[in-house]
Specification:
With 652 residues, the chain is α+β, with helices and mostly antiparallel strands. The chain has 26 helices and 15 strands. The N and C termini lie far apart (69 Å). The relative contact order is 0.07.
Length: 652
């Protein structure tokens, strides 16, 4: 059936091609504005109310008056009308709007033509001046990659795909390339990545604010059902880079990319955002928001609603619900919260705690502050925070927002570290039910599985994690840890060696490298890797030096097992390589007996070289005392252990 065309004056509204043309020239128009214009033209014989527009164009979603007005003004601008003249689109006071132009209807039997080009960014009368060159230069569509660092992460990602998941590897590039294939999510659904918003403020110190707004918009979009948000952290690897949108989206497994800029002057802020379809670079939506900083939550909400509308994804909200909850009226609290998020992203735990602890005291009902503090405390092994305090903070975060997945995950991580494995399992499952695609939740749950010996399941879950977040160094390190435990040390090395030393992954990279080198009997390299470990709360420098001395003694004799120095934390793996297998279990035993807390020293219990230790009565006693046996029976056995009879087990 031929598609209809509405002709008024020298304009043609072509429904088949979804084009607005003046003569033969296509006029750029946003999809939502096009739908609004079509609805007005088709209902030109009556006044269209605000409720009519919301029900039809926005499918009943909550829409602010300012958003509705901006779309009507955009429709007027597209047809050469204005709010002053109203020759085609007229506002009827207290009633609505009506299209009043003379319209001729005709059909078009031709095949649909190409899509219309992207609309130009809107202008603004804001007191904040635009950047030179307009909005297009506020966020250049081409950007430079983060150089060698990002290139190394791409190489690590490709290596991981090949070794762990059997996917083809075309060589690990020294310069950044992306995996061949379509710029789409692995599942085929709409997948959105939010790139870091550019800081256009004169004060470079406001970088935390623009980065924070990026993360906040990402979090808001993640609450929309059926909208798959990917690369919540990996997107920051493209900050200030110069790759085109198609390549970035392909690397991040995204079908659509959101980019923008933030300019903050005193108490005024301008946020510009645009939604780009990755496969063809078409700009589907763009807008600028000029408000006082105190209205930043409204901006985030409007951007999320506009993007959902452009993608035709329902918000899934109940009546009266909003995408953003648990706001604060204290602007200083919010800015401090954004600063803390920047520190947490950089894994600067000390500074994040320094900001967050007084923040929750001064603003005790600000749920995001409590939630972030709970996440930070979940890194207690590195930060030295008391686990009881960490649990209290996580409980408070949950009380303030019972739908906060990260708060449940933080509490579950604390439970796991405390040996409460069943409670931890329940907590992680609750967190995953609330947000199954939250990378930190997936990461923490897989870490828990690896700790209790369910290595293969942990690696399987991390497969999904790397699809969501292909460029997070800390995630690579943890995956390599479990590959070592699974006897894949050569493959782990291929990944670890491509992660640059400056990556913010604490001492984890050094220890993982040392473990992998030792498994390959490359002891000198293992010793050098340990010496490169940065200061940490996990073990002292003296213990590092003791471990290095033992590694360098191989293949000679390190001396009697009982006379060897006590190696702290996860350095216990060294004992297995100097013939002191009986001492590998010391740290886990001490932790259970004295502290009742687990750490990553359990990693050393699951590697192939300690199999004889796992077959001893001493190991069985530890498993029962630690609660692992009860947990395994209820939730799943370690890969190397299995039940034997009604109340016993054996391990390989």
């Amino acid at each position: 059936m031929p598609d209809l065309q509405y002709v008024f004056g020298d304009l043609t509204l072509d429904l088949g091609r979804r084009e607005l043309r003046r003569g033969g020239a296509v006029i750029g128009i946003q999809p939502q504005v096009f739908d609004l214009l079509v609805y007005l033209v088709e209902n030109r014989h009556q006044v269209v109310s605000k409720d009519d527009l919301i029900a039809t164009v926005w499918q009943g979603r909550i829409v602010s008056d300012s958003t509705l007005t901006s779309r009507i003004n955009a429709a007027r601008k597209a047809v050469g009308d204005s709010g002053e003249t109203q020759t085609l689109i007229r506002t009827i006071s207290r009633k609505g709007v009506r299209f009043v132009g003379d319209v001729r209807v005709q059909s078009d039997a031709r095949e649909p033509g190409p899509k219309s080009p992207a609309p130009e960014s809107g202008k603004t009368d804001s007191p904040i001046p635009p950047a030179p060159g307009g909005h297009r230069q506020e966020r250049a569509r081409s950007r430079t990659w983060g150089g060698v660092f990002a290139g190394s992460l791409v190489a690590a990602a490709l290596t991981l795909l090949f070794y762990q998941f059997g996917l083809p590897l075309a060589g690990a590039p020294k310069q950044p390339n992306v995996v061949e294939g379509e710029a789409a999510s692995p599942t085929g659904m709409i997948a959105v990545a939010v790139l870091p918003f550019q800081n256009l403020s004169a004060d470079r110190e406001q970088e935390f604010f623009s980065d924070g707004i990026t993360e906040e918009i990402t979090s808001v979009l993640a609450r929309i059902p059926n909208l798959h948000v990917v690369a919540r952290t990996s997107a920051f690897e493209f900050k200030g880079s110069n790759r085109n949108i198609q390549e970035i989206a392909q690397a991040l497994h995204a079908t659509h990319v959101i980019e923008g800029s933030v300019r903050k002057v005193d108490d005024q802020v301008r946020v510009t955002a645009q939604l780009v379809q990755a496969d063809n670079g078409l700009e589907l939506w763009t807008d600028s928001y000029d408000r006082r900083v105190v209205n930043i939550f409204a901006i985030q909400d409007e951007i999320a609603q506009a993007i959902a509308g452009a993608l035709r994804v329902p918000l899934g909200l109940q009546h009266g619900e909003t995408l953003i909850a648990n706001r604060t009226d204290n602007l200083n609290s919010y800015e401090q919260y954004l600063r803390a998020r920047a520190f947490y992203r950089a894994r600067d735990i000390e500074n994040a705690i320094r900001i967050l602890e007084p923040l929750v005291v001064h603003d005790p009902t600000f749920a995001p502050g409590w939630s972030l503090l709970a996440q930070v405390y979940a890194f207690a092994e590195w930060s030295g925070v008391d686990f009881g305090k960490a649990a209290d903070v996580a409980h408070q975060a949950i009380r303030l927002n019972p739908r906060n997945a990260l708060a449940y995950a933080a509490l579950a991580a604390v439970d796991s570290a405390g040996g409460r494995f069943a409670e931890s399992e329940a907590g992680f499952r609750k967190a995953l039910a609330l947000d199954p695609s939250e990378p930190d939740v997936i990461d923490m749950y897989s870490l828990k599985l690896g700790t209790v010996g369910r290595i293969n399941e942990a690696l399987s879950i991390r497969h999904k994690l790397h699809e969501l977040e292909p460029f997070v160094p800390a995630y690579f390190v943890a995956t390599a840890r479990f590959m070592i435990s699974a006897g894949q040390s050569k493959a782990a090395l291929a990944i670890l060696e491509k992660i640059p030393p400056e990556a913010k992954v604490s001492e984890g990279l050094s220890v993982a490298l040392a473990r992998a080198y030792a498994m390959e009997e490359r002891y000198a390299e293992a010793a050098n890797a340990l010496l490169a470990a940065p200061p940490t709360n996990s073990f002292t420098r003296r213990s590092v030096e003791d471990a290095v001395r033992l590694l360098r003694s191989i293949p000679g004799s390190a001396g009697s097992s009982r006379n060897l120095p006590a190696l702290e934390g996860r350095l216990n793996f060294v004992y297995a390589h100097v013939g002191a297998l009986d001492r590998v279990l010391e740290n886990p035993e001490r932790i259970v007996q004295v502290h009742g807390q687990f750490d990553t020293s359990l990693d050393a219990l699951w590697t192939p070289d300690v199999a004889p230790l796992r077959q001893t009565e001493r190991f069985k006693k530890f498993v029962r005392a630690s609660g692992l046996y009860d947990y395994w029976r209820e939730h799943g056995w370690a890969d190397v252990c299995r039940p034997a009879g009604a109340d016993d087990f054996v391990c390989d």
